Amino acid sequence: MKILPANIEQQIAISSGLLAFWSLYRVAWSLYLALTYNFVFGSLIFPIVLWGVIGVAAAIAFFARYSKAPASETNPPNQA
C-alpha cells in the first residue's frame, strides 16, 4: 500500500541523492582538513563517521527508489 503520491516519492528520492552528494563532499573536505592539519584529526573523526553513515543511508534510499523502474520503462514496446 502506497501512502505518498508518486511526485512526493520522486522529490524524496532526489533529496536523498542530493544529501548523499553533500555527505560525500563533507567527508572529502573533512579528510582534506585532517590530512592538511594533523592536530585536528582527532576532532574530525566523529564528523567523518557521522557524514559517512548519513551519506551511505541516503545513497541506499536513492538507489532503492531508482532501481525499481516500472516495466514499461525497462522494456519499451518494439515498433515496426
Can you describe this structure?
The chain is elongated and about 60 Å long. The chain is built from three helices and no strands. It has 80 residues and is mainly α. It has a domain at 23-65.
Please name the defining characteristics of this protein.
3 helices, 76% helix, elongated
In helices, the fraction of residues equals: over 70%
Report the order of strands and helices: HHH
| Terminal CA distance | 38 Å
Largest sheet: none
Strand coverage percent: under 5%
Shape category: elongated
> What class, by secondary structure content?
mainly alpha
How many helix segments?
3
Put the structure in a nutshell.
By secondary structure, the chain is an all-alpha fold.
